[in-house]
User: What shape does this take?
Amino acid sequence: MKELNNLIEHVVARVSANLRDPGLDVSQYVRNQIPMDSHAMYYGFYALTHQHPLSFSFKHSSLAGTYFLGKTEVELSVVYKCDIRGDELKRKGTVVDMHGAKLRLFQDERISIRHSFLVKTLVHNNSHDPENVEIFKILNTIALQYSNIHGTPVEGCIIEPFATVDLSSCHNCIVGAFAYVQGGELSGRRIEPGHILIENPGVFSINYQHSPEVLEKYLTLDENHRPSGVFMDFCEARKHDFEPVYNAAQPEIPVEFPDTSFVSHYSLIRGDCAIGNNVMVCQRAYVENSRLGDGSNAQENCYIINSNYEGMNVTAHGGKVINADLGQGTFTGFNSFVYGREKARVTIGKDCVTMPHTIIDAEEPIGIPDGSLIWGYIRTQADVATNTVLLSEISKQTRFEQGGLVAEGDLAAFVEGFAHRIQHILEENGAYFDAGDPDRTAGHAQKTQDVGYNTVQAYMGGDLKGLCPTMRIEPLIP
Amino acid sequence: MKELNNLIEHVVARVSANLRDPGLDVSQYVRNQIPMDSHAMYYGFYALTHQHPLSFSFKHSSLAGTYFLGKTEVELSVVYKCDIRGDELKRKGTVVDMHGAKLRLFQDERISIRHSFLVKTLVHNNSHDPENVEIFKILNTIALQYSNIHGTPVEGCIIEPFATVDLSSCHNCIVGAFAYVQGGELSGRRIEPGHILIENPGVFSINYQHSPEVLEKYLTLDENHRPSGVFMDFCEARKHDFEPVYNAAQPEIPVEFPDTSFVSHYSLIRGDCAIGNNVMVCQRAYVENSRLGDGSNAQENCYIINSNYEGMNVTAHGGKVINADLGQGTFTGFNSFVYGREKARVTIGKDCVTMPHTIIDAEEPIGIPDGSLIWGYIRTQADVATNTVLLSEISKQTRFEQGGLVAEGDLAAFVEGFAHRIQHILEENGAYFDAGDPDRTAGHAQKTQDVGYNTVQAYMGGDLKGLCPTMRIEPLIP
Assistant: This one.
């Protein structure tokens, strides 16, 4: 394990140098985060399809649990139980609009992970970084359990457990546990735990802060930065359920589903489930006794249990939807916890938006009207009055303050932006696909169907134990 | 599948050009040899240990079922259900004696497979080719079911089912079904089916020819070169037994064994088995209700069923030992078929040599004395008198003709050479290992223990279906 320990020290040194805070002991973030004894036993994998550009380069790294697709390079990094996709990497020649500047990609975009320690961390990609349109960069960064790096190049960052950085660029930031940031360019910021921040500088800003009591109950870190609370208990209680899936060379998918839908071999499907048309169920999604209506999708690390999705329902990475009924087009944000009970179901109408990092933990049956924006912490029907607003109402305003949410600026732009993004997600996932209609093109659900998986295992002994050899995978026909 | 078909045509053209026989339709050898529909589903794998030099290069090829270790390059080839090892590749700086010439390797030896179609074929390696000491070359060659290429560079050859080329160099040869050749340099030869030929030019020659009736029963090819008979029935009846092994990501090994022994995760162990010290059970070995005494080894594609090995017993690739008791140090050659029955067991004494491609198919209990050389076709105890001879007896002679065997020349050199080779195999496999004795060094059984496996799967759709991307795997520290 000598080289693996050296590698971890190397990453700690790089992150420390970036953060420029001599008083901060970065090593405490990575200590005890991976089981060193058994680490070499876990395997990672990369996917091949004939629809996605292909290029993998792995150097001096430890890869386990990881899923790669598209074009990815990893160097001097520990990437553990991550799900890194690459199905939205832009292709050479694409013209992107970066704040008004039209930039043409001179080569295919690729994901680059260097000098980083990513543990149980998802890295989806839809980059908006004008400085690196060809490279989605993750550099000198530590990201911890169930955090999400999404569309956000990061450099010199620590992303604490269950935190999300989304559609931003982050330099030298510490993003606290269960914080959510969507904020353009962030540099040298410290984001408090449980802070939800959506900024479009000069246009609008949205802020919500979970209370210390809520954080104490749902997600708290001890003095060694180890997380505990309801969220960890929920995930830990189910993590062994995936073992049979990862112990099979070609896992069976125990549900029937239409040809237009994709259910990953590495998802977990249990009990009585129904899958509609144009549905996407990603690897590490957990679906139990639930119905996913047409066009719905279950992203990585989400849990959908005893629930009913009418259709076109997006569950973002890490979203948890338990004992709930969701109307057509209703969205569940990153790491949201929509937790109904058998006798206290949560019913959300159609075309609603559950903000990222929202907690609905039902003490009684809860109903939320069509077209609502939902945030914060909801336990009773009475909380719905304070912690929701009609999207059509808030979009008329320039300042809105209610139930802890402070929203300022062009809120119509905020609402439209959110709606636009949900449409983008649905389109990318193939929710509208129709083989007979050239305008309703294939998305991830259709393009990923012929996927094959190659496993990557580390050296099992010697000084290099836990690290992988140097690997370079390129297309058969360049 | 377009490119896979193109690739097969390419190999056929290369082999045809080598064989220089315009009347021969080489394509009939490869037609229908692989299940084109399901071919892309199968995966190959390569092994990583910290004890073996590492380098893999796979280009424009289809790899399935294949096991690679060490240094291997594959280009423009179909390699299907092969077991190619690389644990006897020589290292840079080694001095080899090639017929008296001392040659120093200027780089690590590697296996090179190009323009070839290898189906269910084992390629072990212990090369004796003075022309290519750094490269074990398989070029423009077709090798069919259960054939063995062992220590034999081949160029422009067709190796028919259950044929073995051993410790030779073969150029532009057709080696018939169930033929065995060990013959130095072979060029432009046609080896008849069932011919066992061991030549050391100028020193000795050994010849045996199985009768047409025996071949008809045990292994015959139809007009499309498809094999049938007792051998195929035996193997086909057991091939599905391996499916659970290959369907698991980390197959369990259902037997206890000492730390000094190696049992491959990809072997099949069934029933009540006992494994002694310093034992090596390779991938695709099939061991059922048997005891493998100290220092024994079960090579790829062998079957050991209801049998007892006293110790130091080598079962060469494809050897089948059923209802048999083998004394200490007794050797079973390539593709030999030692088939006792419950009430007609085969008992072979100690220090015997069952020649490659021998058939013992017991109609009654058969006993063979210590120190025997065994060949040909044996069905009764009476046959033992004609088809065995004491090694100590034959080694005194310069011409020996009995039971179809014609042996001429320095037969002491033949017997000593065989004994020397068996010792080499035992040493290489670690049969004599003793951690406390520096002269009893580790072999394959000990050096392969920390093995990890990476899988290689082909594209699952599109024109490239069934072919693998370009892959290059190199050591983490060069």
